[in-house]
């Protein structure tokens, strides 16, 4: 018997948000470890594993074959949501990319999302841009997680369609988009670790911008506002 797929800590956490019996797409699947892990643990789950690069696509095909999951997982070569048809999947996973790229994948493939009721994302940077996209397009953030692995801190965001209870406070939306509305309510040691580091980085950026011969006053003001938010968040540590 083939043992289960060995997943990273972050992808194991992502997998917990894919519901039982899911019909989902994993975009940017790489070696298809995530869909294989899910389908090995859930016989009813079905997946489309999408990959834009031929090398990882071939590796994904091999992984699916190795675990005997060809009836449960279809590996497709293509860019973003080009690999799925409209109303073909109910859940969507996009993990391990920058926030701007994830947002562009969602935006470019918005016509494919009509039947998607849950999106799980794990951006490596700039989670805020995805939260903004969810807010604009009727997906409600219902779960967030933050974790550290191999010296990196990752955020995971789960958004559901048709969930009426907004996690946002009208007076704090800008701050909550940055920090995560649910992460702000349940601040862990990892949350404080991340934002202490981000505070230090942003302070350095502002110091450098202040020394420039031509100053971008508007951007400096925005960064100083965000720095103030970070100080306020860290003061609760």
Automatic annotation (TrEMBL):
<dbReference type="GO" id="GO:0160105">
    <property type="term" value="F:tRNA (adenine(22)-N1)-methyltransferase activity"/>
</dbReference>
<protein>
    <submittedName>
        <fullName>tRNA (Adenine22-N1)-methyltransferase</fullName>
        <ecNumber>2.1.1.217</ecNumber>
    </submittedName>
</protein>
<keyword id="KW-0808">Transferase</keyword>
<dbReference type="Pfam" id="PF04816">
    <property type="entry name" value="TrmK"/>
</dbReference>
<dbReference type="InterPro" id="IPR029063">
    <property type="entry name" value="SAM-dependent_MTases_sf"/>
</dbReference>
<keyword id="KW-0489">Methyltransferase</keyword>
<dbReference type="InterPro" id="IPR006901">
    <property type="entry name" value="TrmK"/>
</dbReference>
<dbReference type="GO" id="GO:0032259">
    <property type="term" value="P:methylation"/>
</dbReference>
